[in-house]
Amino acid sequence: MHSTILQYLEETAENFPDKAAFADVEELYTYKKLVDAAKRIGSSIAEKVSRRSPVVIYMDKRAYNIPAFLGAVYAGCFYAPIDSRMPAERINLILNTLQPGLILYDDKTEKNLDSIAVQTEKLHYQTALDSDINETVLNSIRAAAKNTDLLYVLFTSGSTGIPKGVTISHSAVMDFMEWICDAYQLDETAALCNQAPFYFDASVPDLYIPLKTGATVYIPPQNYYTFPKKVLQYIEENKINTLFWVPSALCNTVNCKALEICAPQSVKLIVFCGEVMPCRHLNVWKKYIPNALYVNMYGPTEAVYACTYYNINREFANDEKLPLGRACSNCGIILLDGDQEITENGVTGEICILGQCLSQGYYNAPEKTCAVFTQSPLHTKWIEYIYRTGDLGYWNEKEELVFAGRKDFQIKRLGHRIELGEIEKVMLSMDELEYACCLFQEDGEEIIAVYAGKAAENEVRKTMSSKLPQYMLPQKYIHLDQMPMNLNGKIDRIKLKQNYTEEH
Length: 504
Hints:
31% of the residues lie in helices and 27% in strands. The chain is built from 16 helices and 26 strands. α1 (5-15) runs antiparallel to α2 (31-46) and α2 crosses α3 (65-74).
């Protein structure tokens, strides 16, 4: 039985010492080099901070981030990634919550250290890498390790804009990796293309599948995703066969018509998670790369990466909705109306998650933790926590979970309960629309449709009128040349609300 993910790493390094583990356009880490670098960094960190301390990795996104993460783990600590592009205000909010024992930085972020308000020790990555390995200290740390120890903390703000630190243990990540590698036959032949930032949970499969399997992860420069043709060519050149991408990145590729220029047939598995995948965009991917398996997964950061999966094995019309499917191994899903479980097909309730995948709560935020990590109301004989996601769903006739929107995206207008996501789905079924977001202005009960794409407003209005009842139709339509995106690559709803519901 493994107590930490480091055992995966070391076993894989013994089996594939000279195989590429992580590579960007400038540097490549074999598994042997990865272990050596992580141990050096871990030895250096262990000299400066006590075990179970938070270690912030504040660096440019590169392959050398991975030995930094693992170095924190070798030191008996847990890591929290902060990207070099994050604004100073958000960084200080995160650091104030964490009160880290140490910040590991690089040349790119060194110039920003003066803007950090929290007083803590700082260590340059290269200085840590130049340290000698102290096997005695590392072995002592390992002997005391438990699989319930924290592996990482990722900060998510949801709809509030206030960062919350989601804690995830070694056991939660190892359990998910065991399942996903078995379910999709992932082994040393897998070649992945990292898309998500490392501070975003969509990157978790890219970071940990290799440690278990001996796979290779390629890390293209982030600006490649601004020009999707470039990243598709990168995939083709490196014979990449597995993608764990967020839907926004897949949609952007379609919107830019990049697949018409380059459709890499080496790709055999495409998994998307983190937001709704419009079927119109999915169908374009399936047209150009027809032999891949497409998988829709669902799960918040509080559940490692995903807690449900749906292997897409039939055709879906552009305006249909993909099921979220069934629970992953060692996960469970219940739907609640208040504290009452919903078992009847078609009835909507709050999606609640239980099982090995769950976070241990929000770091240094007990009130926020207690609000959503609660005792299961289905029994009182023993302790069993569930996570109340705030997402809505229902069971279809095939006993598959179907997403029905967010509780905080559900509005009441003219006596009707309306899910804004249903309006967005209709808009995104239009070929000429690239992005869509619906807002609600409570002072006048107005629905505001914000969109980007080539469709004229009268065409959007006509389509909406033909597919939605009168009470669901937006009162305002705002066309943008470019939809604002947050650092995670999702539509920045907070900014849109500020721009169009507070000023108008």
